[in-house]
Amino acid sequence: MLLSVVVPAHRVQGYLRAALESVTGQGPAGEAEPELIAVCTPDSPLELAVARETAERDPRVRVLVLDGPWDTGAARNAGAAAARGAYLLFLDGDDVLLPGAVAEISARLSDGPCGARPPQDPAGDPLPQDPPDVLRLGHDRVDWWGTVEPGDAALPAARNQLFRRAFWEAHRLRFTEGPYGDVVPVHRAVLLASDAGTLAGLDRICVRHGRRRAGTTATTPGRAHFAVIRAYERLAAETGDDPRVEAARAAHLRAVLDDRGRVAPRDRAAFFRAAGLPGRYLSHRVREAVRAGRARARAVARAGRKSLRARVLRVLYRADLRRPLDPRLAVYGAYWNRGVACNPAAVHAKARELVPHIRGVWVVSSRHRDRMPPGMPYVIEGSRAYWRAMATATYLVNNSSFPGGFTKRPGQTYLQTHHGTPLKTMGLDQLPYPALTGGVDFERIVAHADQWDFSLSANPHSTEVWDRVYPSAYEQLPYGYPRNDVLCGASPELTGKIRAELGIAPGATVLLYAPTHRDYRRGFVPRLDLERLTRELGPGFTLLVRAHYFYGRSAGAAGDRIVDVTAHPVVEELFLAADALITDYSSLMFDYACLDRPIIAYVPDWEAYRAARGTYVDLLSGRPGDTPGAVATTEDELVGVLRGGAWRSPEADALRAAFRDRFCPYDDGHAAERVVRRIFPVAPD
Length: 685
Hints:
Layout: E1 3-8, H1 16-24, E2 35-40, H2 45-57, E3 61-65, H3 72-82, E4 87-90, E5 95-97, H4 101-109, E6 134-142, E7 148-150, E8 161-164, H5 165-170, H6 183-196, E9 199-210, H7 227-238, H8 243-258, H9 268-275, H10 281-304, H11 308-320, E10 326-333, H12 342-354, E11 359-364, E12 378-380, H13 384-392, E13 393-398, E14 413-416, H14 442-451, E15 454-456, H15 460-469, E16 475-477, H16 485-488, H17 492-501, E17 509-513, H18 530-537, E18 541-545, E19 562-564, H19 571-577, E20 580-583, H20 588-592, E21 599-602, H21 606-613, E22 630-632, H22 635-644, H23 650-663, H24 671-679
Parallel strand pairs: 1-2, 1-4, 2-3, 6-9, 10-11, 10-13, 11-12, 13-14, 14-15, 15-16, 17-18, 17-20, 18-19, 20-21, 21-22
Antiparallel strand pairs: 4-8, 5-9, 6-7, 6-8
Helix pairs in contact: 1-2, 6-7, 7-8, 11-13, 12-24, 17-19
Family: Belongs to the CDP-glycerol glycerophosphotransferase family.
Membrane topology: Peripheral membrane protein
Main location: membrane
């Protein structure tokens, strides 16, 4: 076996799957076929589940589980000790091995150690040569915006070096614990190989490092970065003060200082003193002052463009920001201020039960104020009351975003509940689809995520996606969706009451047709002849039609046994009324799966939708966990599925069960309670 790839897997839930698949997806490579060792910890259950899932599919993958506190260096050392390949490659969980890299590495290792083809004997056969001990790989990096840049040669990293395992073991090379744990072994290996003439290079870009905004040492300013100074002190001691160490040290320390995400401004003077660089501190202070002055100038210019009323409200808002926070006030919002709905509504209801001393106020737009239930406290977005509430509330809960660009204060707690499981690409994953995202302000998306303290997750799939597409330092709450609590324990009496209120005849089979919107189409235009469908199905069926809320309060649907329920305020009640769901790409399918009732995917424009927006789940694959039940791609197929009974066949039931297991693992009727107890100060029972 040529290559062992070691991947520590901790706090990389949104990136690990891509990292592992970049190795297993290298394709047939004969003797160069790599083995993959994922090193995990029970403290990161999602990463452990992804690693084990990958190992179940691919025998080349092994999973090591470490006990005790996590340390990346210890994880790499454990992976190296278990490796069987001739060479070691250490990737992080946010790195990827680019396509064709293993084949390029294999070809390069068949060359001589210095890069030339090996010498030949008189018969033209290559003479045996010592293999390189260290092969330096071409590498680059990509940031959260998708911008690819060359790799930084000043920062030593294990990810872009290939180490011969016998060489690694002979010199007892090991990663040190704590930050900058690869400084000592990587530099020592390079120096030793350079002295022996067994250092080689490969110009081809093999490894791509994913630069993350949050969750890594490199993106967390603080005194942890002083460890780089100690790492070079240890390196100097272990190499007998090799003169080459000082040049590497100076380059690395400059790179750390130039990265504003590392050493915090308040720690810079101490860092300079600890590094023995006091004379350079003044120039850094000057550069920081220039940056700050430019930022203030931009802020002043933006303020000058505000309208008079907005400027007055902002002045008043800034005054309110000096008021103490109200520990008894929570502000709620849903669907861009459309009223009381979704997860925030369920959290609010449970909060009124468990923490009645905390007053909840809803944000609503003026055009949707008629949707507010009688007696429900609310403020109109952009009003004086709105800005006062946003300035003084201790708790903020929303499934989208609050309007107006408020300033989140220290001491405020912001819960982002989201409003669906992602089927289509979200957040920064939309960047490759510029035709449909021309009006999306991705910088604003990232700035919004920076305000969150908590991000609610409906299932492990959502946790992976949110972590990657909204890169920030919030805490993930794998609690399930509070809005689905009602689905987990609803009685037949409640279902009968809802059906009666909707005017559904007793004994009717009810189908809920709820397609999502298309980014490339205006208005609700169902790709389905609703009247024909009801005629084909006969008098025993009733069709509920719900258009996406982007299209207003009516689907414009009418006919015999067709009920337009677009304006119905609570979609969960429609779920309870329906015997089956017909949808295309709506996230409603993930919620409806809680009921364990049939789901029919009617996807007449699947290829166009995937090409235009991108999807995370292949509804047409037929794989358990991907396909929720019966599938139809034409109107005739849909009629056939319903009339022929395929929608409730054993095959459809099995697919639905796997889909439910994957996307509804937390739904037990107590999600709202878990959220309230985590966010609010609830007195013990």
